[in-house]
Write a structure and sequence with these properties.
alpha/beta, Rossmann fold, UDP-N-acetylmuramoyl-L-alanine:D-glutamate ligase, Protein-Tyrosine Phosphatase, Chain A, 3 domains, 9-stranded mixed β-sheet, 6-stranded mixed β-sheet, 16 helices, 20 strands, 34% helix
Length: 438
């Protein structure tokens, strides 16, 4: 792809937008970045020192779209004025994922799904590096793909976490191995219904060929997949990878014991299976997968034990930004649970898991935009209370718990009504618990 003197626009100055702008500049394009907000002044100066122009604030929403190439950052909703202004002027968009792929010279393992993407991406990264294959976790996790591509001389594979937002703007993106973990309700504040969300996710397969691989959840019906499929399931015996007791098996052969790893729960068994499916696709022997998989530890905010107060365990599962993640967290708890849940209204209801809340939680403390709506349904089957702040929620949960209980902070939706992001939410929960423990 020759970009010498190409006039390129990048919409959005988040981490993906900045990485795209730097890649375009490195490839010889004349780059202008547009952002409707107030980007960090230091970041703007750094880009301007490179020769990259930046137009921010209201001026970005009314700028002329006289560019030969326009890159849309995945975090920007296509309905906002910045995007609509370019669209009215006839701009066609590609995303940062598509841009980076056009300069990619290494095999790509791409991971998508509603839940487990980050854990599985990091498991594959750890597994490959432990087996002597150089890779880096990138994409929707940490380092943008466009930044990783600029380091590809140091790598053998790209391990790329991919969101539905990133897949909306692909045209040629074709992973050598596409990993499909699951699909459950999420992002219904962006998509009109589950069918639209599913269609966006399915694009991960659209350019694959029969020589490529698709590692897929056996329980999902995935039409049009032409790649060779490797299936997994912790619930069904018909998949290539299954769970027999605590043993992960591949076509009847024991491969890995769950107690050899630092992971627990059915959902993490499937994440491990998906990683092992990628190993099978790229022909890594089983014995070489174990070092990386057995040494991997979960990131914070994923059922993280942040303290014990008077015999009560406090678990930080702030990464649970949708109902399926909350369901998995509840199902994995063998002890009585006091649940803290709720947050931003993302367009889905908590009604369908009221039965599970009744079965697993002795009390639920509800927070955020959805607190009142959840209360109306759940309070019929489980004792509930509402807290205006996270501090108050933790204090209420503590009052309703006794030694041997678990206080589980698993919101089941996103954080933006009260916090910067799920990490900020989880960090505040951890800090509150640690201060109470003193």
């Amino acid at each position: 792809m020759n970009l010498d003197r190409t006039r390129a626009a990048v919409l959005g100055l988040g981490s993906s937008g900045e990485a795209a702008a730097r890649l375009l500049h490195r490839k010889g394009a004349s780059v202008t970045v547009f952002d409707s907000g107030k980007p960090d002044a230091g970041k703007i100066r750094t880009l301007q020192d490179l020769g990259i122009s930046v137009i921010a604030g209201e001026a970005a929403d009314t700028a002329k779209a006289d560019y030969e190439l326009t890159i849309l950052s995945p975090g920007i909703d296509p309905v906002v004025p910045l995007v609509q202004n370019f669209r009215r002027q006839g701009a066609a968009f590609i995303g940062e994922l598509e841009l980076a792929f056009r300069f990619c010279e290494r095999p790509v393992i791409a991971i998508t799904g509603t839940n487990g993407k980050t854990t599985t991406t990091q498991l594959i990264e750890s597994m490959l590096n432990g087996a002597g294959h150089r890779t880096v976790a990138c994409g929707n996790i940490g380092m943008p793909f466009a930044e990783a591509v600029q380091r590809q001389a140091e790598l053998d594979f790209f391990t790329v976490e991919i969101s539905s937002f990133q897949l909306e703007t692909i045209s040629t993106f074709r992973p050598d191995v596409a990993v499909w973990l699951n699909l459950t309700p999420d992002h219904l504040d962006r998509y009109s219904d589950m069918a639209e969300y599913r269609t966006a996710k399915l694009r991960i397969f659209e350019n694959q060929r029969s020589s490529d691989y698709a590692v897929t959840n056996y329980s999902d019906d995935l039409p049009g997949v032409v790649a060779s499929q490797i299936t997994f399931s912790a619930y069904s015996k018909g998949a290539d990878f299954i769970l027999h007791g605590d043993t992960i098996c591949f076509r009847g052969e024991p491969i890995l014991e769950m107690n050899e790893t630092h992971l627990s729960g059915i959902h993490n068994a499937e994440n491990l299976m998906a990683a092992l499916g990628a190993a099978q696709a790229i022909k890594i022997p089983w014995e070489k997968t174990k070092f990386g998989l057995t040494n991997y530890r979960l990131l914070p905010h994923r059922c993280e034990n942040v303290g014990v107060i008077d015999g009560v365990i406090f678990l930080n599962d702030s990464k649970a930004t949708n109902l399926d993640a909350l369901v998995k967290a509840l199902e994995s708890q063998p002890k009585p649970v006091v649940l803290i849940a709720g947050g931003k209204d993302k367009g889905f209801e908590f009604d369908g898991i009221a039965g599970l809340a009744h079965a697993k939680a002795k009390h639920a403390v509800l927070i955020g935009e959805m607190a009142d709506r959840i209360f109306r349904t759940w309070s019929k089957v489980v004792p509930c209370s509402i807290a205006k702040t996270l501090q108050a929620a933790v204090e209420q949960a503590r009052r309703h718990s006794v030694p041997g209980d678990v206080v589980l902070f698993s919101p089941g939706t996103s954080s933006f009504d009260m916090f910067k992001n799920y990490a900020d939410r989880g960090n505040q929960f951890r800090q509150i618990v640690q201060e109470l423990a003193r």
